[in-house]
From TrEMBL:
<feature type="binding site">
    <location>
        <position position="169"/>
    </location>
    <ligand>
        <name>ATP</name>
    </ligand>
</feature>
<keyword id="KW-0963">Cytoplasm</keyword>
<keyword id="KW-0808">Transferase</keyword>
<feature type="binding site">
    <location>
        <begin position="13"/>
        <end position="16"/>
    </location>
    <ligand>
        <name>ATP</name>
    </ligand>
</feature>
<keyword id="KW-0067">ATP-binding</keyword>
<dbReference type="Pfam" id="PF00696">
    <property type="entry name" value="AA_kinase"/>
</dbReference>
<dbReference type="GO" id="GO:0033862">
    <property type="term" value="F:UMP kinase activity"/>
</dbReference>
<comment type="function">
    <text>Catalyzes the reversible phosphorylation of UMP to UDP.</text>
</comment>
<dbReference type="InterPro" id="IPR011817">
    <property type="entry name" value="Uridylate_kinase"/>
</dbReference>
<feature type="binding site">
    <location>
        <position position="55"/>
    </location>
    <ligand>
        <name>UMP</name>
    </ligand>
</feature>
<protein>
    <recommendedName>
        <fullName>Uridylate kinase</fullName>
        <ecNumber>2.7.4.22</ecNumber>
    </recommendedName>
</protein>
<feature type="binding site">
    <location>
        <position position="56"/>
    </location>
    <ligand>
        <name>ATP</name>
    </ligand>
</feature>
<comment type="similarity">
    <text>Belongs to the UMP kinase family.</text>
</comment>
<dbReference type="InterPro" id="IPR036393">
    <property type="entry name" value="AceGlu_kinase-like_sf"/>
</dbReference>
<feature type="binding site">
    <location>
        <position position="163"/>
    </location>
    <ligand>
        <name>ATP</name>
    </ligand>
</feature>
<feature type="binding site">
    <location>
        <position position="60"/>
    </location>
    <ligand>
        <name>ATP</name>
    </ligand>
</feature>
<keyword id="KW-0547">Nucleotide-binding</keyword>
Length: 239
């Protein structure tokens, strides 16, 4: 595309569930490659892309704890699940001809690089897609918090949360026909109205360090490109 870019460096958060597609566990290769091509498209247009992927399609600490496992062990398994998803996305991006580097918050040096901030920024500047794996590296956090943290650390101009819904609604659009989508919200609105956008730690980081967040529907091809060109797709959350 020849349209001007509004954003030069973004942080894209993909949930693990996003990778499942129509499966009920694991990774649907069709969805994986479609998302990879969308990331490649914006990257080739000149956008520096950092990606954080969740692990909910494989393991979540809270779910494992509910089934009786030690919570911290469950969170370790959840973080390792994000590494597997990151490796799958790295592979898909490279299969289609892009350059990607997985950087993990937990050391697994035989498998991928560690997250080192200055090296991450270097990858981005070189046009490589940096995939930030293992969340924050700490239990009791989520990959939304990891995404907010990495967005602040690498100086992303926009954080994107790709979901199954095309933004934030005043009530659940699947249950209420009259639900209306917000085009814009402030972080203050999100907190006072207790809107389920991201967990509070993630919201607090984005608010305190002034990272705007756009929530959009990942199933709509081309929306990622339109967003980086400045189109008001989904819901924008800002200060
Ligand atoms: N997790 C963690 N610390 C982090 C990020 C993630 O312990 O900083 C664990 C946690 O158990 C979480 C799991 O990894 O449930 C998978 O991440 P998340 O639930 O955020 O994935 P998503 O919902 O985006 O698929």
């Amino acid at each position: 595309s020849t349209s001007a870019l509004k954003y030069r460096r973004i942080l894209l958060k993909l949930s693990g569930e996003a990778l499942m597609g129509r499966e009920d566990y694991g990774i649907d290769p069709e969805v994986l490659f479609r998302l990879a091509r969308e990331i490649q498209e914006v990257n080739r247009a000149g956008v520096q892309v950092g990606v954080v992927i969740g692990g909910g399609n494989i393991f979540r600490g809270a779910g494992l704890a509910a089934a009786g496992m030690d919570r911290v062990t469950g969170d370790h398994m959840g973080m390792l699940a994000t590494v597997m998803n990151a490796l799958a996305m790295q592979d898909a991006l490279e299969k289609i001809g892009s350059y990607a580097r997985t950087m993990s918050a937990l050391k697994i040096n035989e498998v991928c690089e560690d997250f080192i901030r200055r090296r991450a920024i270097r990858h981005l500047e070189k046009g490589r897609i940096a995939i930030f794996a293992a969340g924050t590296g700490n239990p009791f956090f989520t990959t939304d918090s990891a995404a907010a943290l990495r967005a602040v650390e690498v100086g992303a101009e926009l954080m994107l949360k790709a979901t199954k819904v095309d933004g934030v609604y005043d009530k659940d659009p699947k249950k209420h026909a009259d639900a209306t989508r917000y085009e814009k919200l402030t972080y203050e609105d999100v907190i006072t109205r207790d809107l389920k956008v991201m967990d509070t730690a993630a919201i607090a980081l984005c608010r305190d360090y002034d990272i705007p967040l756009r929530i959009y529907d990942m199933s709509r091809s081309g929306d990622l490109m339109r967003i980086v060109q400045g189109e008001p797709i989904g819901t924008l959350v800002h200060n």
